[in-house]
């Protein structure tokens, strides 16, 4: 199962790694309540390959380092190839509470609830943050989410369709990456 997960990292129909220039903040979807801010970043290979090389390597290494935990969570959720999304909760006020189970994605008219969560922060299990403190996790969703079209992120009655802006940026960057990859290396 871990091998299947790692194979998901290397998509066959994607642009080459190392040519992207987008920053994480260019494509992250943010939501804010009065007490927390939520940042959602898809870890889909076709998305993260368009990020700057250091960010791409960092995210790829993060997923690889947690592959066993992701595989276990995927097995508990009855899927070998879950869709992975990194979610970060940021405290805006002291003692800000968050409920990780209430974050959902809607893609192609279908609501996706998390089938597993792999915490990345030691503060995760308290479900509470101080001002400027953060807690991050990798969320697992069933396959079927499309990051090539509109996606809605929702949490406790709030919703954001900001991913549509990210789709346009990703499409533009994909074309630029393909062009950059065709250029001969400098010095030749």
Q: Please, what is the average pLDDT? A: 91
Q: What is the number of helices? A: 6
**What is the terminal separation in angstroms?**
43 Å
Biggest pleated sheet: 5 strands, antiparallel
Write the layout of secondary structure elements.
Layout: H1 2-9, H2 24-27, E1 29-32, E2 36-42, H3 45-48, H4 53-65, H5 67-76, E3 83-91, E4 96-97, E5 103-107, E6 110-112, E7 116-119, E8 128-129, E9 134-141, E10 151-155, E11 158-160, H6 163-182
Antiparallel strand pairs: 1-2, 2-3, 3-9, 4-8, 5-6, 5-10, 7-9, 10-11
Folded structure, characterized:
With 188 residues, the protein is α+β, with helices and mostly antiparallel strands. The protein is built from six helices and eleven strands. The protein has helices at 2-9, 24-27, 45-48, 53-65, 67-76, 163-182, and strands spanning 29-32, 36-42, 83-91, 96-97, 103-107, 110-112, 116-119, 128-129, 134-141, 151-155, 158-160. The chain has a five-stranded antiparallel sheet with strand order 1-2-3-9-7. A four-stranded antiparallel sheet has the order 6-5-10-11, with no helix packed on it. Strand 5 and strand 6 form a beta hairpin. The longest helix has 20 residues, at 163-182. The radius of gyration is 17 Å and the shape is globular. Residues 3-12 have low confidence and may be disordered.
């Amino acid at each position: 199962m871990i091998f299947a997960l790692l194979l998901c990292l290397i998509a066959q129909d994607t642009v080459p790694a190392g040519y992207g220039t987008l920053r994480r903040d260019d494509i992250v979807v943010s939501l804010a309540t009065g007490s927390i801010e939520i940042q959602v970043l898809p870890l889909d290979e076709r998305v993260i390959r368009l990020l700057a090389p250091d960010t791409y390597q960092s995210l790829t290494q993060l997923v690889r380092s947690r592959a066993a935990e992701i595989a276990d969570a995927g097995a508990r959720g009855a899927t070998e190839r879950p869709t992975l999304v990194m979610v970060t909760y940021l405290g805006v006020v002291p003692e800000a509470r968050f409920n990780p189970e209430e974050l959902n994605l809607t893609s192609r008219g279908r609501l996706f609830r998390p089938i597993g969560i792999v915490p990345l922060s030691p503060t995760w299990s308290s479900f509470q943050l101080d001002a400027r403190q953060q807690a991050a996790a990798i969320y697992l969703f069933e396959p079927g989410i499309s990051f090539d079209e509109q996606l809605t992120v929702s949490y406790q009655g709030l919703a954001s369709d900001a991913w549509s802006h990210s789709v346009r940026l990703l499409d533009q960057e994909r074309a630029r990456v393909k062009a950059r990859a065709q250029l001969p290396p400098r010095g030749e």
